[in-house]
Amino acid sequence: MNSAPATVRGVQGDIDPGQLGIVDAHDHLFFRSPLLAGQELDDVDLARQELAAYAAVGGGTVVQWTPYGLGRRAAELPALAEATGVRIVAATGMHQSAHYAPQLLAARKTDLAEVFVRELTEGIAGSGVRAGLIKVAGGFHSLDAHARWTMRAAAEAHHATGAPIAVHHELGTGALDVLDLLCEELEVPAHRILLGHLNRSPDFVVQRDVARSGAYLAFDGPSRANHATDWRMPDAMAALAEAGFAHRLLLGGDTTTAGARSVSGGPGMPYLLRRVRPRLTEALGKDVVEQVLVANPAAAFAVEWR
């Protein structure tokens, strides 16, 4: 019996991975958290303008890592994709506990994996949009009880659907602990794991160990909160490419506040292609940068869905 072809689950339906074009592999169109009060990404028209600006410099796809309960506005995403021509991939999952009211966490204690599976296979409530990845998060050099709970649920949902798991690493730390839990204990294949923010802890030894596992390393920038690591990113990525791990690299913008959008005066999504891409081309060469922006995300997000 032949298996189904691998596809990327977009907000308008499943996509042939060869049709993604240039991919911003980690970003946010909408995001709302009590930790970022007054800086919410919740304006639909500004989201449309940002996508249009990204498309104007050659962007083809955006993967939104905003998980359950943080203002994803999933119902708005298909119309935004239609209006701008930019493909969008939405996320299920759950962030660190500090982003949520205690009563919301308590309400999901017994059915978190079920929520993830339902959003991946049936759709996010009130939207008809199916998620294409699972987003979870670790802590600073640690995995607390909340992180272990959400990662266990993510692993269960992965085994039920095949969906990739994307991980927020606080200040870029804890990646090896995440791999120990997800791969060794919970038996998630490493190539189905995307480890975010690894440029924010520029430890080349850890980065090589992560790449050697088969997981993807998602570098994101520019980052106001972690600007000191932005200038190290080309060297880190070049070192990994020279070590034979160019096929494990992803790139994203991670726009998390309203002021960070390009249409609001920040760098935003277009900056990845206007400024970051030329800088990376100097360090890695044009062919490797093309691989990072096109071929790698096509492989990372494509799933033989179950």
Automatic annotation (TrEMBL):
Q: Which residues carry this modification: N6-carboxylysine?
A: K135
Q: Which InterPro entries match?
A: Metal_Hydrolase, Phosphotriesterase
Q: Where does Zn(2+) 2 bind?
A: K135, H168, H197
The record, for Pfam families, names: PTE
Extract the GO molecular function terms from the UniProt entry.
hydrolase activity; zinc ion binding
Keywords per UniProt: Hydrolase, Metal-binding
Protein name (record): Phosphotriesterase
Recorded source organism is Streptomyces tabacisoli
